[in-house]
Amino acid sequence: MRSVILLGLFLLALTALTFGPLWLQPTLPSIASHYYLPLHTTLEIIAVTISALIFTVVREQARYQLSRRSVVLAAAFFAVFWLDLAHLLSFEGMPAYFTANSPAKAINFWLAARLVVACALLYVLLPQADKAARRFQLWLAISGSVLLVLACHLWFIGYPESVPATYQPGAGLTPLKILVEYLVIAICLLCLGFIWHYRHQPRPYHAPALIAALITTILSEFFFTLYQNTNDLYNLSGHLLKVLSYLFLYRALVYENLAEPFRKLSLSSAELTATLNAVPDLLFDVDLNGRFYQAHTGQNQQLLFQPEHFLGKTMAEVLPESAASAGQQAIREAWNNKGLSSPKQYTLDLNGEIQWFQVIASLKPASRDSVLPRFVLAARNITEQKLTQATEQLNALAFHTREAIMITDAQRRIVRVNPAFTEITGYSEQDVCGKTPAILRSGLHDEQFYQQMWQQLYQQGVWSGELYNKRKNGEIYPEQIIINAITGSDGEISHYIACFNDISASKSDQQRIYKLAYYDPLTQLPNRRLLLERITDIQHEADRSGFYAALLFIDLDHFKRLNDTLGHSYGDELLQQLSTRLQHSLRQTDTLARPGGDEFILLAPTYKATLDEAAVDAQQLAAKLLTQIREPFLLKNRQYQITASIGIVLFNSSNKTIDELMSSADLAMYHSKEQGRNQLYFFEPGMQQRSLLRQQLESEMHLALSQQQFKLFFQPKVNNKGKLTGYEALLRWQHPERGMISPELFIPVAETSGFITILGQWILAEACNALKHLTDPQLTIAINVSKRQLQTPDFVEKTLLQIRTAGIKASRLEFEITESMLMTDVEQTRQKLQQLHQQGIRFALDDFGTGYSSLAFLKNVPIQVLKIDRSFVRDFLSDQTDYAIVDTIISMAKTLKLTVVAEGVETTEQFKMLSWLKCDLFQGFLFGKPAPEFCLPQPVEQLLTLPIADHPI
Fold this sequence. Notes:
Layout: H1 2-24, H2 33-61, H3 68-90, H4 103-124, H5 135-158, E1 167-168, E2 172-173, H6 175-197, H7 207-223, H8 233-275, E3 282-287, E4 292-296, H9 315-318, H10 321-337, E5 344-350, E6 353-363, E7 374-381, H11 383-395, E8 404-409, E9 414-417, H12 419-425, H13 429-432, H14 447-460, E10 462-470, E11 476-487, E12 493-502, H15 504-518, H16 528-545, E13 549-556, H17 559-566, H18 568-584, E14 591-596, E15 599-605, H19 611-630, E16 633-635, E17 638-640, E18 644-651, H20 658-674, E19 680-682, H21 685-706, E20 710-719, E21 724-735, E22 739-741, H22 743-753, H23 756-771, E23 780-784, H24 787-790, H25 795-806, E24 813-818, H26 826-838, E25 842-848, H27 855-860, E26 865-868, H28 870-875, H29 880-895, E27 899-902, H30 908-916, E28 921-922
Parallel strand pairs: 18-19, 21-23, 23-24, 24-25, 25-26, 26-27, 27-28
Antiparallel strand pairs: 1-2, 3-4, 3-7, 5-6, 6-7, 8-9, 8-12, 10-11, 11-12, 13-15, 13-18, 14-15, 16-17, 20-21, 20-28, 21-22
């Protein structure tokens, strides 16, 4: 009754919402076609889907119970499905449905569907619809629906001029269309009258839902008499109400019939349960997949849930894993045997106690109604039998021993343990019975370890060894264990017996001995003995990989003063704090050892294949250690500072003995002390000089930039006529003491230190300012951009800001990049280059042919210029390979419409041959050396008149 009241209130509210807008504003705005079309399509798809559902369900019900009502509903909604679909496809804006779509065409299919639905509903409300029907009548009615749909298509599409007008563009609906809509409303009102007339008779439909469907249909049809064009809000509201009416129809005519069989099935199950109540054991009716159809027990306390909970569910869904697994094994065995299975055992925790059960499956006779084979499962409580059997086994052993004993069945489920087991593990017998030994697992052994253990038990019947298990309190402990497999009279394994001892004490003693042998007792760092073993391991690894490792000898400066002035306890405290401090900054692959006194030795693999790279890593690591050592120490509330001297030796093989390596590092350390302490020194003199020079250059770069020691030199570029086309800006460092420093020395240092990003911005600014002094607007300046500079997040923004600040055209700038710069962060690099290129900046691929030379880069990044490396130009007149490379690069560039620049052109013969090969631009000493000012190139007109051979080689 409550649902009926709520439905009535809903319909009243819906009616108010329907007629309210008419009272407030009779003319509602239209919806744009590109919005209305998808809305209309969605609503019609929903309506068509519901029609298909009603037809499908009613037709399927006809297989078991067929009435005239079912025949009419199935045939009517079969026709409505196709007519509504035709209405959807004929709507204006959809692709042409056989002929051009129009509002009148869509309305014609619409009216036909509405009349079919209304007439069908009128019939199904009559008592005559309850009479039985035959299957041929159903197919005859559906055939009539097919003919109706075809006739409508033939008339509305084939002869549209003969169809009375239902819609006039610009004028709206015709009287005929409105009349038909009111006819549908009248039929619906008549249907409501029939419902009221037969209200006291039992009817096979849900009356409140059918009333709601008819009222929403009336409201829908009323809206369809009001719209002026096909995409106004009246039309949309009518479609919404139509979908709602279809949903109510589905509830009234289909859902009720679907629910009835389930109610009958529930009643039948209850009757069967009452019949079987006298059976004492657990019985289940299941299929091959373990799905329950019936459940019965005379001992409900042994079930985890009430019997009704099992119906319709599988074993895996309602039973514990052990019970489900045993049941499935029994079902599969009974199916394979085509009869009865052997007993399968499992355990359940019932009311806090472990109970043992066995289950047997029996195949039921085949039934025509059963898709899958059905089985009867009989489960029996065998707890007492199990306990008796386990007690007999234990009585045969010396059960009360100091060794822990654990007995399991053949499925590895624990059945008994002795007091020693509880003493060692902390688990009582009640805690573990029915569970597997996996409850003791520590997680330190992988699954493969246990698989091999059980495999040996199966094959040999015994396994012994050491295991790490976990006590009940979570503590992990080692145990010495032996496991025996016990077989029965049939030769099959019936039980496993494990005996074990806790060997934590002996293991602890072994660890203490190992600590004393290999670790410094004061700092807990590896001692000299362990260090020597690890150096040997690193040497063998270096022999295989070729990677360098560093050995750093660290000696504290004036440590004796601390011991002499404050005492040895202060010195010990400093050594302990220092070891802790240094270990925090090291990698796991590094070994920091204390051979004794105030000396520390660090073994650090660099994983670098070149000596210079390894030296850079070792220098950075040593500098970091020196900084950390200089940090103040707090010794018993007293602050103390100390420094250290570090000697470094690098090695990548076992060619040198460990004594030689240690001696070399020691000598380097003493040299560091001789140079003033608080510093590092490499054993190799040449490496030490390069390291010192690198440090000096890095420290002087910032000062050099502020003092304007960096200069831009400009080298001209010309075309094949000798005409100047632009310059390349080259960086030079005029040092006040060292003189002119080669870029090959300071550029790598700037790259490593990150100073190159600052230097690159300065070069860009200087190049932009220089461009303002070039009066010829066609001349360009090319500058080199570093990889690290290009990877900075704000490279594009800073570059464009600099160009705007200088007030020059971006098209007069050319950025030279190398192939290696395009190998990392390819997509991000491509986006940055594309953004700059869109502003006019050109890009040249420098030293082409010396790197990766991937043609994919030429396709994916905005490169306009290829520069042939000077190493190919230098010998291409005498080296056939170099000539082929130069010729290929030029030909490829011409095909790709790229400009080619030849670097390092120093002779007239080179210039003539490159011109003959169609090279575009030239750069080299033949035209001018780099200079701090813009210089005109050397005249080369006379070179063009000299003869040239067809081929230089």
